[in-house]
Amino acid sequence: MEQGFTPNSEIWNSRFAMIGFVSILIIEALSGQGIVHFWSDTLSNLW
After folding, report:
1. pLDDT tens string for the chain (47 positions)?
2. Which residues contact 27 (CB under 8 A, 6 or more apart)?
3. Are 29 and 18 in contact (CB under 8 A)?
């Protein structure tokens, strides 16, 4: 099995990145708040 920056691994990495980006856009559109708002709420609950 080949490891590192192979073309196949880069394709999968970019696909997952696009899924994450579109998911953030959907969350922002449905909630009306930015992703930073969710991060700040999550981080404030940890302390």
Report:
1. 677 789 999 999 999 999 999 999 998 899 888 888 877 776 676 65
2. 35, 38
3. no
Q: Alpha-carbon distance 31 to 24, whole Å?
A: 11
Q: CA distances (Å), 35 to each of 3, 15, 16, in order?
A: 33, 20, 18
Residues of 4-33 as b/e, b for ≥16 C-beta within 10 angstroms? Answer: eeeeeeeeeeeeeeeeeeeeeeeeeeeeee
Task: State residue 4's pLDDT score.
Answer: 79
Q: How many residues in the chain?
A: 47
Please give the Cα distance from 45 to 22 (Å, whole number): 26
